[in-house]
Amino acid sequence: MPTTTSQFLNGVPELLVLRLLRDREMYGYELVEAIRAASNDKLTFAEGVIYPVLHALERDGALSTRRQTVNGRSRVYYSVTPTGKDRFDALLAHWQRVHSTIATIVETPRHA
To answer: What are the tens digits of pLDDT across the range 69-81?
Structure first.
């Protein structure tokens, strides 16, 4: 069953967008599909989730854009800036700490 946005997943789309754009530039719908494919259909985020993340990251200087016409359609391609690379590194470190902490709590036997 695919996971969609929830309070628990807050911040995950930003992390994934920055990670995938480190490999190559993409346009919005392409990112939606790339997240779905990279997660083997376990994570799905609608365009209504991804586009606000893209716009916020661009506003913050983490992404740059370029417009290109493809088959008569204008597309905005996003790529990570040095600021975006730093932001990704900080987000990744945060998520690794969260994961480690949760794993410790879940895996450590507790005695009453």
So the answer is: 988 999 999 999 9
